[in-house]
Amino acid sequence: MHLGEFRIGKKLGNGRFGSVYLAQHKESGYIVALKVLRKREALSQGTERSISHEIGIGTQLRHFNLVPLYGWFHDRENVYIVMEYAEAGELYNKVGKVTVQEALEVVLQVGRGLYFLHQHGIVHRDIKPENILCYQHGIYKVGDLGGVGGIGVVGTLDYLAPESIAGSTGGLSVSPISTPVDVWACGVLLYELLEGRPPFERPTREGTLRAISKEGYLRTPKIVEDARVVKILERCLVKRGEERWTIREMVEYLEGAICNIR
User: Fold this and answer.
1) pLDDT at 179
2) 120 CB burial (10 A radius; 0-12, 13-18, 19+)
3) pLDDT reading at 172 higher than 70
4) What is the pLDDT of residues 150-160, one digit of tens each?
5) 63, 84, 105 — which closes off a domain?
6) Distances from the Cα of 161 to the Cαs of 1, 72, 157, 183, 200, in angstroms?
7) Which of 59, 83, 98, 262 stands 20 to 30 A from 220 (CA)?
8) pLDDT tens-digit profile of 21-66?
9) Residues classed as catalytic
10) What is d(CA 257, CA 262) in angstroms, rounded to the nearest whole number?
11) 131 annotated ligand-binding residue
C-alpha cells in the first residue's frame, strides 16, 4: 500500500484513535513509524489539542531519550505523524522480565528525557511502559507527548500521582499538574518493571485510586533485595509531591548508583 511519499508495511500497534504502521520513505528508503490518527474520533473526544501538542513538541525539541517526530501531514480523514521507528518495540513487552540493573538503566534513560522536558517547562504526565520505546544496544526513549501541559487529569490510572486524586474514593482533581507527577510515575515504572504489575493496582478503579492516595506499596523480596531500588522508591513514591526527588535528583542518584556497579 502507498500513501503519499511512503510505502506502508505491517501494522505495529493500535491506539485510541488510530494505528501505527511500519513505513518506508520512497525517495530516501528510510524506515519510519507512521502514526495514523482518525480525525473524526479525535475531534469527537476533544483531543485535537493533544495531537497539536505532540506534533509541536516532537518536531521542535530534540533529545537522545525522546522519540523524534520527523513531520506530519493530513487528508480529509486522518492525521499522519512520521516518527522514528523503534525496532525493539514497546517497553511493555519487557515488564516483569528484566534484571534490577536493566530496570535501573531504563528509569535512568527515561529520567534523562524527562529532565530535558522539565527544563523546557514541559510535564509529560503519561509515563508508562507503552509510551517508552526500545532500541538496539539498550537504548530507551520516551514517546507520546500528546498529554503534556494543561490542567486536569491526563494519564493512565495505575500511574496517576496522589495529587491527581481528590479524596480517597476516586474523584479526580482539576488543579494544575507539575513535574512531581513524572517523578512518581518513574517510581511506579521501576516497580512494575521488576514485579510485573504496578504497585497500587487493585481489582477496582476506586480501590486503585484509594491505594494511590492512602496506602503503601508491597515490599516484596525482589523490591527490598537491592538497596538502590529501595532508595528510589522511597524518594519517588512519596505521597506529597513537594517531598519527592526532582527528576534531576533522581537522575544524578541513578548515574552514581549504576556507574558504581559497572
Assistant:
1) 94
2) exposed
3) no
4) 444 467 899 99
5) 84
6) 43, 32, 9, 9, 11
7) 262
8) 999 999 999 999 999 988 887 676 556 667 777 788 888 899 999 9
9) 126
10) 9
11) yes
Neighbouring C-beta atoms of residue 61, cutoff 10 Å: 16
SS3 call for 136: helix
* 16 is annotated as contributing to ligand binding: yes
* 50 and 126 share one domain: no
SS3 content of the chain, % helix, strand, coil (to 5): 40, 20, 35
Where does the pLDDT of residue 164 fall: very low under 50, low under 70, confident under 90, or very high at 90 and above?
Answer: confident
Residue 85 assigned as binding residue: yes
pLDDT in tens, 135-152: 999 999 999 886 555 444
Instruction: Give the end of a domain, one of 41, 66, 84.
Output: 84
Instruction: Output the domain CATH number for residue 249.
Output: 1.10.510.10
Residue 154's pLDDT is: 65
260 in a labelled binding site:
no
Angle separating helix axes 100-119 and 247-259, nearest 10 degrees: 150
pLDDT in tens, 200-225: 999 999 999 999 999 999 999 999 99
Domain count, the chain: 2
161 shares a domain with 32: no
> Environment class of residue 261 by beta-carbon count within 10 Å: exposed (0-12), middle (13-18) or buried (19+)?
exposed
Residues 61, 29 share a domain: yes
For residue 8, the enclosing domain spans: 3-84
All three cell numbers of 242, joined, read 513537594
